[in-house]
Amino acid sequence: MIKKINSIALLLLFSCWSGSENPAVQSKYDFSGVGILQVNKISDHSSMLGSGEMVLNRITHNFLKYGYSVNESNDNLFEVEISSGKLSLELSCIITEFTDSEMIVVPYRHEDRGYTKTVVQQSSDQDEEKEKSQSQTSTTTTHAGKVRQGNRVEYTQSKVGVMLKMIDQDSGDMVWSNSYWYSGLELQRTIDLCIKNGVVQIKKLFP
Amino acid sequence: MKILNVIIFIGVLYADSSDSLLKASAALNAGMFEEALIHVSEAQKQEPTNPDVHQLKALLHEALDEPEDALESWKECVKYSKDKKVKRQAKIHIRSLSEE
Q: Which of A113, A185, A197 sits opposite B63 (nearest CB)?
């Protein structure tokens, strides 16, 4: 029985990760009544100190960019003003991946297919006394190709992954959840785009 | 003269694209994204079906804030790549860029 539950949980977890583009939403929840969205503190990823602060900054930055008022409360938590509604939500974020520079190695196998060159030489004798005659010779040269292997192209890539969830402060019900992942050549831009994807989807919940 | 032209044409046709990729890699690691993009575009002309070239080109377009060009390159990457991880990465980028 426990094995069955575990396998179902694993299946659910996998489906959540692989289907990260589709958020889980509690359909009965009235998002139009939400007044405040409180953004909880974010723990650093084990691979980088300060990553939590970076992600938090990008969340508040994106809400501000989309026209919402963002305030810092007395307990140093950020609150996003959604509307004049009475409901309050808590937004939590877990950083699942935070890679500053991962080396990407692209081994290449360059194939020179070779070529065939044909030179055609044509000459004509236009002597009126003699019968008009033409001669044509052609030379065909084939150059064999070669395959070069073992070289590689290297560059670094940043990767950021987050799991976001929203909980109703009064009932404790989880009302929305999704995970995001993004990659890029620069860390700052990668964080921004990863978080932006999340904020864009959250924004769609509120009329 | 004609023979010389033929030889030059063949030389251009079979130019070594790996040189372009190596130059792109060097420029990229130096943070010179515009320079890198020029070399990657050269490599792409020689190897139009190489998904790694399209992936790198797409990332460069994104870094240079050229979302439409990045979208095109990601689509080409999905078209030619057989690597599931790369395909997934490309699809995430396509979705994100399409929403912009």
A: A185
B39 domain residue, yes or no: yes
Least confident among A131-135, A176-180, B34-38: A131-135
Nearest CA in chain B to A186: B63
Q: List pLDDT tens digits, range A145-174.
A: 665 554 567 788 899 999 999 999 999 999
Confidence (pLDDT) at A111: 56
What is the rounded distance in angstroms from the CA atom of residue A150 to the CA atom of residue A143?
23
Domain around B73: 16-99
For chain B, the domain total comes to 1
Q: Choose, out of B4, B13, B14, the residue to mutate when testing the contact with A (most A CBs < 10 Å).
A: B14
Nearest-by-Cβ selection for B14 from A112, A156, A157 = A112
Whether residue B2 is contained in a domain is answered as: no
Distances (CA, A) of B14 to A46, A107, A112, B7, B55: 48, 20, 7, 11, 23
Number of domains in chain A: 1
Domain coverage including residue A93: 17-105+163-203
Strand-strand pairing, A87-107 and A152-168: antiparallel
| Residue A85 near residue A35 (C-beta atoms within 8 A) | yes
CATH of the domain at B84: 1.25.40.10
pLDDT-derived band at A21 (thresholds 50, 70, 90) equals low
Residue B4 within a domain: no
* Beta-carbon contacts of residue B6 (< 8 Å; ≥ 6 apart): A117, A119
In a domain, B5, yes or no: no
Greatest C-alpha distance within chain B: 55
- In angstroms, what separates the C-alpha of A1 from chain B's closest C-alpha? 33
Q: What is the pLDDT of residues B10-48, one digit of tens each?
A: 444 444 556 777 788 888 888 899 999 999 898 888 889
A122 within domain boundaries: no
- A190: nearest CA partner in chain B: B63
Q: Which residue has the higher pLDDT, A85 or A142?
A: A85
ipTM of the complex: 0.76
